[in-house]
Design brief:
The protein is 41% helix and 16% strand. The chain is an alpha/beta fold. The protein is globular and about 80 Å long. The structure holds iron/sulfur cluster (SF4).
Length: 448
Amino acid sequence: MALSGLQIFKLLPKTNCKECGQATCMAFAMQLAAGKAELDECPYVSDEAKAELGEASAPPVRKVTIGTGDMAVTIGEETVLYRHEKRFEHMPGLGVLITGDMDDGEVDSLLEQLKQQEFNYVGQTLRPRVAAIKADDGARLAELAARADEKAGAALVLISGDAAALKAAAEPLKDRKPLLYAATEANFDDVAAVAGELDVPFAIKADSLEKLADLGQKAIDADFKEVVLDPCSATLGDVLMDQTLIRRAAVKQTFRALGFPTIGFPCDMTGDKMQEAVFASTFIAKYTGIVILSDLDPARVMPLLYLSQNIYTDPQRPMQMDQGVYPINDPNEDSPILVTTNFSLTYFTVSSEVEASKVPAWLCIMDVEGQSVLTAWAAGKFVADAIAPFLKKSGIEEKAPHRKITIPGYVAQISGELEEELGEGWEVQVGVREAADIPKYLRQLSKN
Ligand code: SF4
């Protein structure tokens, strides 16, 4: 049963050292009770207190990991309903459905795509990781699961209504932590027994949230922790409602029976590919942990991955680059010098335009806590008396002694002051406002 803030407080060190980010141990205890903090954030909790806090300190949505190694997918551990309240923790695992009636060529083609497909966006590598294998026949299920493991190393979801078939497929791969899908009212005991014996996660599904909560409670009573929920939503409206109610019950009421991550199958909801992408994006936007598609067309996979990344970045910590001097296109001592901020999007937009220009250049990236150029300027962080010392300490003078630097066009007004701050011998040039104009600007510059 969940503990109150006061009960948790009694088990904390009560030194008010603030290392957890809270002003007092009492404030931390209240955050913990509300599911908005994690016990690990206090480095001084004793082992006895940890054991006693046990369930109370578990996140309202349990953590589940499917697969191992690079393709592993961790979901759950969520503590908030809205991203801006703290952050969402784990990006959904995107995957593809492989069925027993597909021929070898089709199966291998999907597995090859799963293995090869990856997209780089603002410094992160994004990729689908899950193969959902569906077959009634145990031997076929086992054969396809082994193939998906061997050829793609995928995180596996094994789909069958027959517990014996699930066992046949999962047993040889139990160390790879496949997800068994799914226990229902009819077969709960059998599927749960296989999951328990093999120590792998399993999904429960039901056509109403009440029945789903009953099964969730059964799983808790049997001491299962790695469980995934499928509310079997039939329409887009149902997806929105079911996923929201499950998350709300978990994080607002600490209702443990629904305190598990979810799985969704847009592949089964429509035959129209574009509609499937819309359904998938709704699952992603509304908390779903694993989303299964009918194919891996990059035209749909890539935007879905970018959408996930946008939702699951920490809103309190802008994505940022390390401060430093970045060489692009193999520059030398005569190459132009550009300076801008360390907001990831700024860096990747500017660096890709410089790269596209084919003009060798030095890109000086200044740490302004991940803010964009104008925001950092307005906050007094990207201003003359901050940029000048950064440039002098950056080592750019040794790399390119000409001392001519280009600042973004949006902060043209600081050029004179910056030149003064930098001192004699430096020249500040005002660059373009839009990144798309950088290649033309650089080519022009290199002719002068
Ligand atoms: S880190 Fe621990 S001891 Fe320090 S204030 Fe937070 S809860 Fe208290």
